[in-house]
Amino acid sequence: MSEAIQRENILATAAAYAKSPTSQAQRRVSILGATGSVGCSTLDLIGRHPNRYDVVALTANSNAELLAKQAIAHDAELAVLADPAGLDELKSALSGTSVEAAAGQEALMEAVARPADWTMAAIVGSAGLRPTLEAVRQGKSVALANKECLVSAGDIFMETVASSGTRLLPVDSEHSAGFQSIDPNASDAIEKITLTASGGPFRTWTREQIKTATPEDALNHPTWSMGDKLTIDSATLMNKGLELIEAFFLFPVEPDQLGVVVHPQSIVHCLVEYSDGSVLAQLSSPDMRTPIAYSLAWPERMWAPTERLDLAKIGSLDFEAPDNDRFPAPRMAIEALKANNGSTTVLNAANEIAVDAFLNRRIGLPSICTLVADTLEAVARDGLTKPKTLDDVLALDALSRTLARSLLPELV
Ligand code: NAD
Ligand code: MG
After folding, report:
1. Which residue spans of the chain are classified as CATH 3.40.50.720?
2. Domain 3-171 belongs to what topology?
3. Ligand 1 center from residue 195 Cα (angstroms)
4. Whose CA is nearest to atom 20 of ligand 1?
5. CATH fold for domain 341-412
6. How far apart are CA 54 and CA 76, in angstroms?
7. What string of DSSP letters covers 206-262?
8. Is the CB of 351 under 6 A from ligand 1?
9. Residue 35 CA: which ligand is closest?
């Protein structure tokens, strides 16, 4: 994607800010992935401001019980499961209410197309690709939590954002922080964007200790509470790799202008450095309800029930360089991004297979990056060409998963 399109996006968002109404008119909102960590936090905020938001559609993969509870509590129009197996349970849980129940991929896409002013895209993994792109095509506001859309299909995704006139609001805490710290009048003067990383639970572990890490160790994140996939990605720092790729597509910078600094307290989320030496950053307690609230209320701000920062109590904020030897994932991600040939799609797909294998105790934590590297190598051997359409992306994603699965036994 050209730099011009990226810059155009930032500037269009700033211009929309200047023109946007400041009224508190009720907005129609839908949540894709309502039962997950981001989805639940989003509904928590909506529930605290019931007069500002009208819930249209809530979707989930298979948790009919929770989805029905959420739909009733928030008086949603429609509740949809991606997995049709749970439809009977969903219907019976919603019987006697006015909430419509549906299931399956087609129903999910129909839910996305139902008119809404704002859609939260919080389905985990590349399963979120099609529904999120469909939400973007509606041309309203899309709050983007799903990072795999930009990692797997960044060019296609951002071109669709530009052509549909959708307002894309980053939800990932680092990107929300970057979005809040970018001076739209001086985007040309940005020299560097640095994402912070907590370092995860193994920050102080030796390479030998990391080999013995169990899923329970990895799921015990020191600062953030997130879904399992993302928590494992945080432990390997693959999450930071995915976020570097996200940042490239969201912000007007080249890959070499992106950096990572380890910051164990997770208070500073992103730093934007300008040519005059100024660095603008956003700080907040590590609670996703702050970036979600920012995207939900944008261009205004809303109250969120998060712990307020008391810097005197925190005392000190620490920063250290990432260790590329113990945690190779961010470097692998930047190399895949620079290759500009579909490698980021492969990296994402292989990582999903590897994380699943780790959670099922088939491989150790360091083997996650080994499997990703081996898959990248195997796909490159067969010749890799940059995907041009969503179908190309999905085909490359499927091929990468097949190859990753076939390489798994070598690591077990
Ligand atoms: P989660 O696993 O807690 O929830 C995922 C949601 O997606 C659930 O509602 C689930 O039902 C739904 N889902 C799963 N598979 C699906 C499928 N095949 N089809 C349709 N729906 C499906 O995940 P999460 O932690 O809430 O993260 C959601 C997305 O947001 C991820 O892409 C993650 O990387 C990103 N994100 C999360 C956080 C966080 O703090 N949790 C922060 C930044 C970004
Ligand atoms: Mg993040």
Report:
1. 3-171
2. Rossmann fold (3.40.50)
3. 21
4. 61
5. Rna Polymerase Sigma Factor; Chain: A (1.10.1740)
6. 8
7. -HHHHHT--HHHHT--SS----HHHHHHHHHTHHHHHHHHHHHHHSS--GGGEEEEE
8. no
9. 1
**Cβ(230) – ligand 1 distance below 6 Å:** yes
In the chain, helix, strand, coil percent, each to 5?
50, 15, 35
Per-residue pLDDT tens, the chain, 412 aa: give them: 444 455 455 545 544 544 444 445 799 999 999 999 999 999 999 999 989 999 999 999 999 999 999 999 999 999 999 999 999 999 999 999 999 999 999 999 999 999 999 999 999 998 999 999 999 999 999 999 999 999 999 999 999 999 999 999 999 999 999 999 999 899 999 999 999 999 999 999 999 999 999 999 999 988 888 889 999 999 999 999 999 999 999 999 999 999 999 999 999 999 999 999 999 999 999 999 999 999 999 999 999 999 999 999 999 999 999 999 999 999 999 999 999 999 999 999 999 999 999 999 999 999 999 999 999 999 999 889 999 999 999 999 999 999 999 999 988 7
- Cα(127)–Cα(149) distance, integer angstroms: 9
> Which part of the chain has CATH 1.10.1740.10?
341-412
**Atom number of ligand 1 nearest to Cα 288:** 40
Q: How far is the CA of 106 from the centre of ligand 2 (A)?
A: 30
Does the beta carbon of 227 lie inside 6 Å of ligand 1?
A: yes
What radius of gyration do the chain's Cα atoms show?
A: 21
- Test site for ligand 1: of 38, 142, 175, 295, most ligand atoms within 8 A of the Cβ: 38
Indicate whether this model's pTM tops 0.90: yes
* Cβ atoms of 67 and 79 closer than 8 Å: yes
Which amino acid is it at 97?
T
- In this structure, what DSSP letter does residue 320 have? B
Could you tell me the distance, in angstroms and rounded to a whole number, from the CA of residue 132 to the centre of ligand 2? Answer: 18
Q: Is residue 351 within 8 Å of 275, Cβ to Cβ?
A: no
Cα(369) to centroid(ligand 2), Å = 19
Task: Decide whether any atom of ligand 1 lies within 6 Å of the 394 Cβ.
Answer: no
Residues 309 and 286: their CA atoms lie apart, in Å, by: 10
Dihedral angle sign, alpha carbons of residues 356, 362, 366, 371: negative
CA of residue 261 to ligand 1 center, whole Å: 25
Atom of ligand 1 nearest to the CA of 39: 26
Residue 124 near ligand 1, beta carbon < 6 Å: yes
